[in-house]
Amino acid sequence: MTDTLQAEIVGSIDSVAAAAWNVCAGSGNPFVRHGFLAAVENSRSAAGETGWLPRHVVIKDEGGEIVAVAPMYVKSHSYGEYVFDWGWAEAYGRAGGRYYPKLQCAVPFTPVTGPRLLARDDDDSLRGALGQTMARLAAQNGMSSVHVTFCSESEAHLLESQGFLHRLGCQYHWENRDYDDFDDFLGQLASRKRKQVKKERQAVAAQGLSIATLVGADVKARHWDHFHRFYESVVDRKWGSAYLNRDFFDLLSASEVADDVVLVWVEQDGEPLAAAFNMLGGDTLYGRTWGVRPGAETPFLHFEACYYRAIDFAIAHRLSRVEAGAQGEHKVARGYLPRPTHSAHWIKDTGLRQAVAKFLAHERSLLAEDMAEQEASGPFSQKASPPCNRASEGPESPY
Q1: Reported confidence tier of residue 298, pLDDT bands at 50, 70, 90
Q2: Which of 20, 77, 86, 265 is the most buried (most CB within 10 A)?
Q3: Domains (ranges, CATH) in the chain?
Q4: Which long-range contacts (CB under 8 A, 24 or more apart) does 157-164 make?
Q5: What predicted TM-score, i.e. pTM, was given to this entire model?
Q6: 62: buried, middle or exposed (CB in 10 Å: 19+, 13-18, 0-12)?
Q7: 327 compared with 339, residue with greater pLDDT
């Protein structure tokens, strides 16, 4: 940190003017925009009582102007992060250490790759100042660690140069190869996989469901009423706790990123049946989560609403990719290939740091092998299979 820069920690996203935050965040990723983070925070989905205490980093220049920011939280657990460090916490506890609280630089409950060190003019020196501030804050307050999750690859390498450990993960993304329509995409699949996808889409179509893709202002409060009930039902049944409350969705629809909402809406005989929630950013559609009316699960509807309709939307809008969120090797058969994700971890205790570094090296080797095997057995014909760019960006519920 230079003498001309000053670091501050604020306890609320609303302590920073939206315009000042967004100049640093840019326009390419809706999840780091002020409006999205404010919806999560002001709905009390991310708050002290839920174990996500806001402590955002703000860097000002000598004139007092905000030049860099980072969304950061004091965490008392590891839920809602999707980069799992439960084993680290358990091992440190057995050794007599106290892992929590820790600092988390992230978008709460959102396993989406994007910038985390938000700086004006893409200034790496300002990003470095954010990383230094996080580590210093943790050290001064007796916290075990800092975790910057789902950051860009370049941010991970920058933080690695500051003593953070670089961790790789894996998600499943669909990539647009200038397809004219869904049939054009299907034509690139191996015969057996193509028949499988056609069969699944035909099975859903045969049920006479009404499926629409609603964007921005098309999504009304009544849609969120039903969607939130569906979402809670699915999450409660499979994972036990829904992270986002109903107020979040109203605040989202009233925010600056409301136009980025893409909701796949399914009705049966005029009654809401299911929905899949997505966000649009830059050249990417981000699949977030879905829900279905309790007791009304329909074969292949999840694949249609979450994966195939997302591909339809991406092709129609000339988007480069669909990022389908955390987990799910079943996505490979439907055209979503494994891609690396990145995170960076600063650990105060030398012994724990060395143990984690050794674990990450082993994990990286296994991950690379697993990703290569998944891609080799993927759905594309050998002739059409797109290469896996491993240098590119790449037991909880999604939300």
Answers
A1: confident
A2: 265
A3: 6-171+339-376 (3.40.630.30), 177-319 (3.40.630.30)
A4: 158/117, 158/124, 158/127, 158/128, 158/131, 159/117, 159/131, 159/344, 159/346, 160/344, 162/128, 162/131, 162/132, 162/135, 162/346, 163/135, 163/346, 164/131, 164/135, 164/344, 164/345, 164/346
A5: 0.93
A6: exposed
A7: 339
